[in-house]
Design a protein that fits this description.
By secondary structure, the protein is of the alpha/beta class. The chain is built from three helices and eight strands. The longest helix is centred in the middle third of the chain and has 24 residues.
Length: about 180
């Protein structure tokens, strides 16, 4: 397991960064003990704004991308600990979900890229373009992926229709589905 730290406008001392590295290894090594050391990359992105640290963690797990985001004042270690707790819960939830689905076996993703981070303010111009390979999946799997990423929508290739589709979180808490029709 490799832990990659990305600092954006954050001033984290080397000693604190080394402590963060040790904590992630202590808590997460057990989940990846059967893999090669460089098989999994956990990205920890730290940003600082007005004495508030935001710690975002992204990692591939069983073919899915797990993500968490936490904020703390003055020091980034508590945000990291909360992030690790959230990732562990997400991993257990995903294993349970995949264990129940007897139709397919979980496959390790060959190329798991980091998900798009939400923009802070809506803008009328495109400021970032994100491309990813959409693997065919069912609507239920797409909803699970959306929830694991913490996003309000998720675009995917619908395995039943073979067309591009998007699931989204409605204001009433339910999910909606948008399917493209061929023109």
């Amino acid at each position: 397991m490799i832990i990659r730290f990305v600092m954006k406008d954050a001033h984290v001392p080397a000693a604190v960064q080394e402590t963060m590295n040790k904590r992630v290894h202590q808590r997460m090594d057990a989940y990846f003990k059967d893999e090669a050391e460089d098989a999994t990359v956990i990205t920890v992105r730290i940003t600082e704004q007005k004495n508030t640290y935001k710690v975002e963690m992204t990692m591939p797990y069983l073919g899915h991308t797990l993500r968490t985001e936490n904020q703390e004042r003055e020091i980034s270690l508590p945000a990291l600990d909360k992030g690790i707790d959230v990732l562990e819960r997400q991993m257990k939830k995903l294993r349970t979900r995949l264990g129940r689905d007897l139709r397919k076996k979980p496959a390790i993703a060959e190329d798991a890229s980091a998900p798009e981070l939400p923009e802070e303010e809506p803008s009328e111009k495109v400021v970032r373009v994100k491309r990813y390979a959409a693997k065919p999946m069912s609507v239920e799997d797409a909803i699970l992926e959306m929830n694991l990423l913490g996003h309000s929508f998720y675009m995917f290739s619908n395995i039943e229709t073979g067309m591009a589709a998007t699931v989204y979180r409605r204001k009433d808490g339910d999910c909606g589905l948008i399917e493209l029709e061929s023109l």
